[in-house]
Amino acid sequence: MEKKEQLYEGKAKKVFATENPDYVIVSYKDDATAFNGLKKGTIAGKGVINNKMSNLLMQMLEKKGIKTHFVEEIDDRNTVVKKVEIVPLEVIIRNVAAGSFSKRYGVPEGTLFMSPTIEFSYKNDDLGDPLINDYHALALKLATVEEIETIKKMAFTVNEEMKSFFKEHLNVDLIDFKLEFGRFKGEIVLADEISPDTCRFWEAGSWDTTKHVSLDKDRFRRDLGGVEDAYQEIFKRLKGE
Ligand code: UDP
């Protein structure tokens, strides 16, 4: 499938039309941003890793019965996906306190939850992606009651599948992650990406100490060094090397 005109350029990806109106091509860049675009940089090789990692995880999830946007990987940085209408919600699932949760609620990073949490942010850069609840999402007509129910169920299933997958195969604890969903032919499908840009991965067992080892974008956000190495390491483990 060939790239036609560019439809969109985001912070980390470009989207191109194809000859098929149902499909687009997503092209992953090495550009990295954090704090709503305030911090900018490049992570060499990130685009390749995020593309391949997201595709492997989407295929794993499809096998577990989760509908996704994934169609076909073209090459290192380019993938054909279903052309969805993105539901303007960032869906965040957490297993362990970290990042904005720890800050907002005054809970130390590394506090294990009794059960996973879900939260929604309204995807709107101008407003800084504000935290909202289901009723806000309905009032703002971002999604229907049925869609919100489906999204919640899918997000928790993705969490269970990903948590055990990462622990068993990569020796990594899945701390939290962000998902986005889209509408495709009347159905909700998992869209966007699942990568070290959108998940917190901590070296197994390191989260209950004050010195957890991050294998994700926190190395960039927090200037911890070894950013490229962390992306390479998690990808190497994913490939089973
Ligand atoms: N996240 C993301 N995009 C965002 C905000 C968060 O992918 O715009 C991911 C982030 O990588 C982490 C999880 O969602 O895995 C929870 O992030 P948090 O709310 O703690 O925000 P942060 O501390 O990153 O600002």
Strand and helix map with partners:
Elements: E1 6-9, E2 13-17, E3 23-28, E4 31-34, E5 39-42, H1 46-63, E6 70-73, E7 78-82, E8 85-86, E9 89-96, H2 99-105, E10 112-122, E11 131-132, H3 134-139, H4 145-170, E12 172-184, E13 187-191, E14 199-203, H5 218-221, H6 227-238
Textual characterization of the structure:
The protein is α+β, with helices and mostly antiparallel strands and 241 residues long. It folds into 2 domains: 79 residues, Phosphorylase Kinase, domain 1 (2-Layer Sandwich); 153 residues, ATP-grasp fold, B domain (D-amino Acid Aminotransferase, Chain A, domain 1, 2-Layer Sandwich), CATH 3.30.470.20. The chain is 30% helix and 32% strand. It has 6 helices and 14 strands. The strands form 3 sheets. Strands 8, 9, 10, 11, 12, 13 and 14 form a 7-stranded antiparallel β-sheet that branches. Strands 1-2-3-7-6 form a 5-stranded antiparallel β-sheet. It has a two-stranded antiparallel ribbon with strand order 4-5. Strand 4 and strand 5 form a beta hairpin. The longest helix has 26 residues. The relative contact order is 0.16. Bound molecules: uridine-5'-diphosphate (UDP). The site of uridine-5'-diphosphate has 14 residues, from strand 9, helix 2, strand 12 and strand 14.
Give a quick set of tags describing it:
Phosphorylase Kinase, domain 1; alpha+beta; 7-stranded antiparallel beta sheet; 241 residues; globular; 2 domains; binds uridine-5'-diphosphate; 6 helices
